[in-house]
TrEMBL record:
Record domain HTH cro/C1-type: where: 62-117
Database matches in SMART domains: HTH_XRE (SM00530)
Organism: Hoylesella enoeca
Classification via Pfam families: HTH_3
Domain of life: Bacteria
Listed GO MF terms: DNA binding
Protein name per Swiss-Prot or TrEMBL: XRE family transcriptional regulator
Length: 119
């Protein structure tokens, strides 16, 4: 389905308007709920094509986790029992952690394991 920019902007506005009307108690078969579903699909399809979101690499996820926790690679290495150079390999994308190590990194950095496993 080809969606023009004008149609996309209209769908965006309608989604915003409908989000104020449709609640958890609104029936899925109501005209508002159905329109919200259709307009949301239009917005999603347009954005997939024109504004794709690139997946993060495992290295980027670890770097962002370090930044969010305010930790250094050395602190992470001590927390998971690996050398700093090994953590550096992970953050530079030179190698990937084992499943067990990835789980430990997730625990220390408060990263959902699903986020790391989906990469």
């Amino acid at each position: 389905m080809k969606i023009s920019e004008a149609q996309y902007k209209y769908a965006q506005r309608r989604v915003e308007e409908l989000l104020e009307v449709v609640t958890d108690t609104t029936l899925p078969t109501s005209p508002e709920s159905m329109e919200l579903s259709i307009m949301s699909t239009f917005v999603e399809e347009y954005e997939k094509k024109h504004h794709p979101i690139e997946k993060l690499t495992l290295a980027e996820v670890i770097k962002q986790g370090l930044k969010a926790k305010g930790m250094t690679q050395k602190e992470l290495s001590q927390a998971v029992g690996l050398s700093t150079s090994r953590i550096s390999d992970f953050t530079q994308g030179k190698s990937e952690p084992t499943l067990a190590t990835a789980g430990e990194i997730c625990r220390v950095l408060d990263i959902m394991p699903e986020a790391m496993l989906s990469l």
